[in-house]
């Protein structure tokens, strides 16, 4: 009798472990992002154009994420993502402008760096989980960057290092029996004259636990703080690998 009870307990424990394995999961991904930069920044009375004044063009960045989901209904799932988003250039000016109380004159060579790199911490709930997957939640995006200009005897900067709360929506549509899927992810906030919009759409193919994804990401930033302003767009295509366990 005791042996029977022990066997039943072992079977029940195994079934419980298998059930937990089905509903506790992790997803990780890594992307290479071909970035096109445009826009302008301002620290004072003059607007500085990213392309015409600073000579910005294209850059390649990386992004990594990991997400954990669990079976407890009242507790949110968590997603962490890091995006490298920076560009540096040296360019000879064709005009004179003022930036951060310094005057940069025509024919000066200006070294500049714009860094919008950030870390996202997202708490979200899974609303749908079948061939249509839908997650909604809140992202806190922490920027650790700046816009910096330097020439002989002059250097000025705008700091971009504030945490920004953003609405989070992540949807995925699986085409049954094919391994193909489409995805869309958005982080958005708008308040006063400030707005941050980060939208990603992709197409992927999944075989086993591995997925290959090709898509497009558009990142818009409009920030204003007294005489400091930044209106930037970074967009372009990406290729990524996703592992879902």
UniProtKB/TrEMBL annotation:
Keywords: Signal. Residues 1-21 form the signal peptide. InterPro entries: OMP_w_GlyGly. NCBIfam families: OMP_w_GlyGly (TIGR04219). This is Outer membrane protein.
């Amino acid at each position: 009798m005791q042996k029977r009870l022990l066997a039943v307990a072992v079977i029940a424990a195994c079934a419980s472990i298998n059930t937990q394995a089905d509903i506790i999961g992790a997803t990780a991904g890594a992307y290479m992002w071909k970035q096109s930069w445009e826009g302008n920044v301002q620290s004072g009375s003059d607007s500085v154009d990213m392309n015409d004044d600073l000579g910005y063009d294209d850059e390649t960045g990386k992004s990594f994420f990991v997400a954990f989901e669990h079976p407890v209904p009242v507790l949110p799932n968590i997603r962490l993502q890091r995006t490298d988003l920076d560009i540096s250039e040296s360019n000879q000016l064709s005009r004179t402008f003022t930036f951060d109380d310094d005057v940069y004159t025509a024919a000066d060579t200006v070294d500049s760096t714009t860094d919008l790199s950030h870390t996202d911490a997202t708490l979200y709930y899974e609303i749908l989980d079948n061939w249509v997957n839908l997650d909604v939640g809140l992202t806190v995006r922490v920027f650790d960057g700046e816009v910096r200009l330097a020439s002989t005897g002059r250097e000025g900067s705008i700091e971009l290092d504030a945490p920004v709360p953003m609405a989070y929506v992540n949807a995925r549509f699986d085409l049954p029996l094919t391994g193909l899927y489409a995805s869309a992810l958005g982080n958005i906030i708008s308040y006063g004259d400030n707005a941050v919009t980060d939208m990603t759409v992709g197409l992927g193919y999944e075989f086993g636990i591995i997925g290959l994804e090709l898509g497009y990401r558009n990142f818009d930033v409009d920030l204003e703080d007294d005489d400091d302003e930044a209106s930037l767009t970074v967009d372009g295509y990406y290729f990524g690998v996703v592992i879902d366990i």
